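hi! just following up on the protien thing from before. the input was this:
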Amino acid sequence: MKHTHTEQEHCPVTATINLIGGKYKPIILWYLTKGTARYGQIKHYINNATPKMLTQQLRELENDKLIVRKIYPVVPPKVEYSLTKFGASISDVMQEMYKWGKEYLTNQGIEVNCEMYKGNK
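and the predicted 3d structure came back as:
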């Protein structure tokens, strides 16, 4: 998804949220920090995502140059996703967001239970 830049998007925080915000984008990015993955692996990791929504989120991340999709010319088709150098650069930011959010939830008496937590044990 190509973003048009409004005055609000000249804010670095808003620009970051626009790139990584989305129902499954943070979880996809988090999962891909562990390495290259096929669509089925990502779908298994984010098991509550509909195929349509997961595909949409992957395409947006690809269009924004955060991930790359590699298609192998085999039957059945093999597709792998991985972070670009630009996409990998968000890793530290996401780790800090995770820590901040975990502290917030813990202080609210809410148990951390999400796909990112499962991959961070």
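DSSP finds seven helices and three strands in the chain.
The chain has a mean pLDDT of 88.
cheers
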